[in-house]
Amino acid sequence: ITLFKDRAELKALNDLLIRWGFFEYGVKETDGKQEAVLVKKLGEYDPTRTTISNFPNLKRDSVKMILPIQSQFHTSLFPDSRLNTELELEYIANIPHRYALQKVYITWSYERNLNPGDLLLFYRMGDTWPKKYSSVITTVGVIDEVIDTFSSEADFLGYCQNRSVFTTEELKSFWADHRNNLKILKFVYVKSLTKNLTLDYLQQHGMVESGKGPRPFTRISDEQFSMILRDSNTSLYI
């Protein structure tokens, strides 16, 4: 990326790019003005850096999990993972959480062993029968931060607003009912699978128990994750 830095808004953009792992490689002259050249290396994961400064490079030995999401929330959070049966016009509105670089998943699960760099396979829960064909793995994400301590309702809302599919009133109800075990996974959308894989596929390959769907944070092995990428024709920097 080449970037002039002679205006305040461009300096802010430069700082954002640095935060996401770009570094200044050199300077080029353009019409008598100096233009910074920013680059980012792909295919090299640096364990000393944060998840977002490594992105889209992913940690090979990370924990991999399947994370269910209800169909009515799925495509609003992941418009690029829209199913062919869903109308594109319903998901093109400029709503902040749809295009946020970092999104949030809110849970009150007692699962505690969650860490930055862990990989998430988002599973859209089907809304038509048979569920084993309408429920599909659609999307890869990577955890950037896990937050489970909030000083107040305002603190909780500050983490979630503009990154969550939920309204302010819904968020307030979560705080009222679950404040003692609320957890936010701040994550980065990595990629939509080229080909969605069904619940039937997960059951056939032993990733999910026959006759059941995945529980939140269902762990899968490195081999199973690689199989999903292969069979969905999806490539990642991992």
What can you see in these coordinates?
This protein has helices at residues 8-19, 51-54, 71-77, 96-99, 131-134, 153-160, 168-178, 199-204, 222-231, and strands at residues 2-3, 23-30, 33-39, 64-69, 102-107, 119-124, 136-147, 183-198, 218-220. Strands 5-8-7-6-4-9 form a six-stranded mixed beta sheet. The chain has a three-stranded antiparallel beta sheet with strand order 1-3-2, covered by helices on one side. Helix content is 28%, strand content 28%. The protein is globular, with a radius of gyration of 20 Å. The mean pLDDT is 91. β2 (23-30) and β3 form a beta hairpin. It is an alpha+beta fold and 238 residues long. α6 packs across α7 (168-178).
Quaternary structure of the protein:
single chain
Written as H for each helix and E for each strand, in order along the chain, the element string is: EHEEHEHHEEHEHHEHEH
Structural class assignment: alpha+beta
Radius of gyration, in Å, reads 20 Å
**Count of individual beta strands:** 9
Measured by DSSP, the beta-strand proportion falls in 25-35%
Q: Termini separation (Å)?
A: 23 Å
Q: What about the largest sheet?
A: 6 strands, mixed
Mean pLDDT: 91
The helix tally amounts to 9
